[in-house]
Design a protein that fits this description.
Helix content: over 70%
Strand content: under 5%
Number of domains: 1
Radius of gyration: 17 Å
Shape: globular
Distance between the termini: 38 Å
Number of strands: 2
Structural class: mainly alpha
Length: about 220
């Protein structure tokens, strides 16, 4: 029954987050980007729900698989405006996000590597999420990436969360080289977020950080 409870809690949690963001946006407490990043950060915590409830990978995969469909529909029809960008900035970032959740669920929950998946998902959620917030408010040092700009200050947030999250996981495994390995994950995570555009960093960042963490775990 834990898997069934996990599904109920998963859908309830995500829709509550979207609902909160929608209400705060309607009250003008959040602007469009703040609303998106609130959802971006908070939904990554679903990984903790998955690790706690699910012992069946296919049951765990139902939630992200369902939201691939839901988010694609929302992207096309602006159903959940709190998590969508408008106009020229519109991208498939919300769809890529749940595709990453689905891939890492299928890959890590079948091998007992949920903690490695957590590195990628939480670095994407918190690192990329706070990168936008910090970059918007304090990002004075800009780098031109393609046709747009990203801030060094924002990239430092990705580095920080990549380092902190992977460092915690490696240290909890008793790895004596946890600091060096976490440094590698932080640097690579920041680079992936910095040089990937159009929302596709929601694919490259979590998958790249998790893959690198897995390879470093084997060393």
């Amino acid at each position: 029954m834990n898997n069934v409870y996990g599904l109920i809690v998963s859908f309830a949690y995500i829709f509550v987050i979207i609902g909160i963001s929608t209400v705060l946006s309607a009250k003008k407490i959040f602007n469009g980007e703040s609303s998106r990043k609130f959802i971006h950060i908070m939904v990554s915590n679903w990984w903790f729900i998955a690790m706690f409830f699910f012992d069946n990978v296919w049951m765990a995969a139902i939630t992200p698989a369902a939201f691939v469909i839901i988010n694609t529909y929302s992207y096309k029809n602006q159903t959940f405006k709190a998590m969508e960008r408008d106009g020229s900035k519109k991208d498939l970032g919300t769809v890529y996000y749940v595709i990453s959740l689905l891939i890492l669920t299928l890959v890590t929950f079948t091998r007992g590597l949920e903690a490695i998946g957590a590195i990628g998902i939480l670095t994407m959620g918190y690192g990329d999420g706070f990168a936008a917030v910090v970059g918007e408010k304090f990002g004075n040092t800009k780098i031109k990436i393609g046709s747009g700009f990203k801030s060094i200050e924002g990239s430092l947030m990705v580095f920080f969360f990549g380092f902190a999250i992977s460092g915690f996981v490696f240290a909890s495994m008793g790895d004596a080289w946890w600091g060096v390995k976490a440094l590698c994950v932080g640097v690579v995570s920041a680079a992936l977020e910095l040089y990937t555009k159009d929302g596709f960093d929601n694919i490259t960042l979590p998958l790249g950080a998790s893959l690198l963490s897995y390879l470093l775990m084997l060393v």
